[in-house]
Amino acid sequence: MIYDDLTNIDKYNIDKNIINSIKNITENTSCGRVDIDGENFINIDEYSTKPLSQCRFEAHKKYIDIQIMLDGKEKLDFTNVNSLSVSENYDSEKDVMFFENPCDNVNSLILSSGKFVILYPYEAHRPQMISDNAPLKVKKAVVKIKIK
After folding, report:
1. Could you tell me the pTM of the whole model?
2. Which of 11, 31, 33, 47 is deepest in the core (most CB within 10 A)?
3. What proportion of the chain, given as a percentage, has pLDDT over 90?
4. Is the alpha carbon torsion for 57, 97, 89, 83 positive or negative?
5. Per-residue pLDDT at 137 exceeds 80
6. Residue 10 structural domain
C-alpha cells in the first residue's frame, strides 16, 4: 500500500499514459468512466460516506487500484487478505470479492482532497467510511490498472 500526495504521483513506476490521464482529472470532471487505453481506466464517482456498519472489505485480482480523493475526505481501512474470512466469493466479471469485517489487524488512513492510495490485490480495503462524526459528500477517482 502506498499513501501519498497527488503532487508526487510522478515518483512512482506508473505508465506515463496513466499518469497523464490522472493529471487531467479534477474535482470538476464529470462522474463516470474515463478510458485510458484498452486495459486501464478511471471510475469517477460522488457519494456520501457511510458508517462502518455499512462498509465491507473488498479486494481485486485483475487490477491495482489507485484511489484519488478529488473533493472531501473519508476513512479507508486496509489489511492483508490472508487475515480475513471471505463473505462473498470472487466475481471475475466485476473483479471483486468481499470479506467479513475483522475485529483486529486493521490499519486506517484518512483519504482527503489531493491524496491518493495505491492498493494491490493482496491488500483488502474498506473505503467510503465516515471520517468524522457525520456523512460527508465526496468525489473520488479510482484508477484501475490491469495486472500483467
Report:
1. 0.95
2. 47
3. 93
4. negative
5. yes
6. 2-146
| Number of independent structural domains in the chain | 1
Mean model confidence pLDDT for the chain: 95
* β-pair partners for 94: none
Task: Give the per-residue pLDDT at 148.
Answer: 86
Query: What is the domain-level CATH number for residue 70?
Result: 2.60.120.370
Return the residue matching grid coordinates 467479513. Answer: 100
Instruction: List the one residue out of 85, 108, 82 whose CA is nearest residue 98.
Output: 85
Query: What does the pLDDT look like over 61-99, one tens digit per residue?
Result: 999 999 999 999 999 999 999 989 999 999 999 999 999
Full DSSP string of the chain: -EEEEGGGGGGS---HHHHHHHHT--TTSPSEEEE-SSS-EEEEEEEE-B-GGG--EEE-SSEEEEEEEEESEEEEEEEEGGGS-EEEEEETTTTEEEEPPPSSS-EEEEEETTEEEEE-TTEEEEEEE-SSSS--EEEEEEEEEE--
C-alpha cell read off for 140: 473520488
